[in-house]
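Assemble and predict.
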Amino acid sequence: MPQFDLNEIDSKIQMMKRTAEELAQAGENFPAIARNIVRISAGIKMLEINISDVVELETPD
Amino acid sequence: MTDQIYWNPVLETLPQEKIRQLQLKKFKKIFKWTYERSKFHRQIYDEAGLKPEDIRSFEDIRRIPRVEKSMMRDIQRKDPFPYGDALCVPLEEVAVFRQTSGTTGQPVYQPDTWQDWEWWAECWSYILWAQGYRPKDRVFIPFGYNIFVAFWAGHYAAEKVGCEVIPGGVLDTKARILKIQELQATAMMGTPTYILGMAETAQMKMEIDPSELTIDKITCAGECGASIPSTKRRLEKAWGAKVYDHAGATEIGAWSFECQDQPGGLHVNDAMFLVEIADVETGEIIEESGRRGKMIITALDRQAQPCVRFDSKDVIEWSSDPCSCGRTSRLIKGGVVGRADDITKVKGVLLAPSAIEEVVHGVDGLGDEYEVIVDRVGHTDRIKLKVEVLPEAQDQCQLVECELADQLRLKTNLRYDIEICGCETLPRYEVKAKRFKDLREKSKED
C-alpha cells in the first residue's frame, strides 16, 4: 500500500465533520448556512468513504 | 498530482482480502440502514426470516432475497408519491429525480439525496481518472441531458476531476462536431452507437475526418459496444482516439470501468459495490472465472433508495487475470456481454446480440448499423439480419455478404437471411440502439 498517514488524515476528516455538524446546528434558522452545510457534509462523506472506512477496518464492529 | 494513476491510491491497491473485509463491513451497514428505513425491503427480509444481526458473513449475504426491477416498478404505486415505500429518507431530502430508460418496461423512478448525488460523481471520478482524464482536458458531452441519469454524473465528475466541461446538449450532430473542432475538445462521452454515428455524419455529410480532430479519449456507456472488440476498433479508428468502456445503471450507480491499460474487461469498483455473479439456471453464486452468470449487485453507500442485492440481469463473468495497471479490484472479462433477457435460444442455440455485433463490425465494407429480426415460420425460427454496405464497397457486395455469412456461421453457429440495405437507410440512434427484435412471442400472441 502507498505510504500515507491514514490515521492522521482521518482525524482531520472527523474534525471537519464535527465542525460541519456544529455549523448545521448554528444554521437552523439560517438557510445560507444550512443548505451549504448539506453540500459540504456530502463532500466530507466522500472523504470518509475514501479514507475513514479503510481506517475503520482496523476497529471492531 | 496529475502523475498519480489512481484516483484513490489506497482503495485501488488494497489487497483483495482487505477489500472483502471492507465490503462485508459496509454491506452490514447498508443492510441495517435499509431494513430500518424501507418498508418494502423490511417486508421481504422479514418474510425470509432475516434481520440485520443475522448478517455476519458472505454466506449470510447469499441468503438475502434479491430485488428485481419489476418489484421496484410495483412499489412506485405506493406512498410516498412518486417513489413508494423503498424510500429511506424524508421526501424533502430528495435532491434529484431520475428514471430508468424504460428499455425493458415501465421506467423506474430513482430518488437521490445530495449525498447520493455526490457519491455518483465520486464513482464516476474513479472512472475518469483511470481513463486518463486530467484537469488539462476539455470534455465535450454530446448528449441531451434530461430525466435519464446518462452523462449527468459524468459531467459532474469531470468538473470534480478538474476538467473543463462543454455541455453539448441541445446542439444537433453537425453543430456538436463543429463545436468540438472550434474548441479543440480533447475528450468525449457517449453511447458507442451515437459516437459511431457522429463519425459517419462528419465523414459523409461534412467532409471532416474525425480522426483529425483533437479528441484523444472517449468514454462509452449505455451499451456494451465499447467492450466488443470489433466495435471498439471501429470507434478508435474513426476518431483516432482511445475508447474506454464503463458500465452502470440508474438504479445501481457507476459500478465498473475500463482503465488506460485496456485489459479486455472492466474493473469493478469493489470499495463502493459488491458484485456477485449468479448462475442463470440454478442461482448458485459463481466465484471462479470462465463461467457466465447474471450480476447481483449491492451499492454499498447509496442511501435514498438503496440497491441491495439487485438482480441486474447483466450477463458477466470473472476474469482470472490481474490487470497490469496494478489495481487490485476484480475484473469482468469482456465487459457486460448482454442481458439475461436478451440472450435467447434461436433454433435451439443460445444467441447473444453482442455476438452478432462483433461479427458485423469485424467485416470490412459494412456500415456501422444493422438490425436483427427473429421470427418463427411454422415451427422453425428464422433470423433476418439487415446490414448496410459502405459506398466504397458497393462493387464487392457479394464478397462482403459471403464473408459476413461465413463469420456468422463460425461465431454464432447459426444461419441468417442477410438483407443488404441502401446506405443510411437503417435507423440511427442517439441514445440506446434497439437493433434486436424478437417477434416470436408476438406471433404466438397473434
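The helical segments of chain A are 6-26, 31-56.
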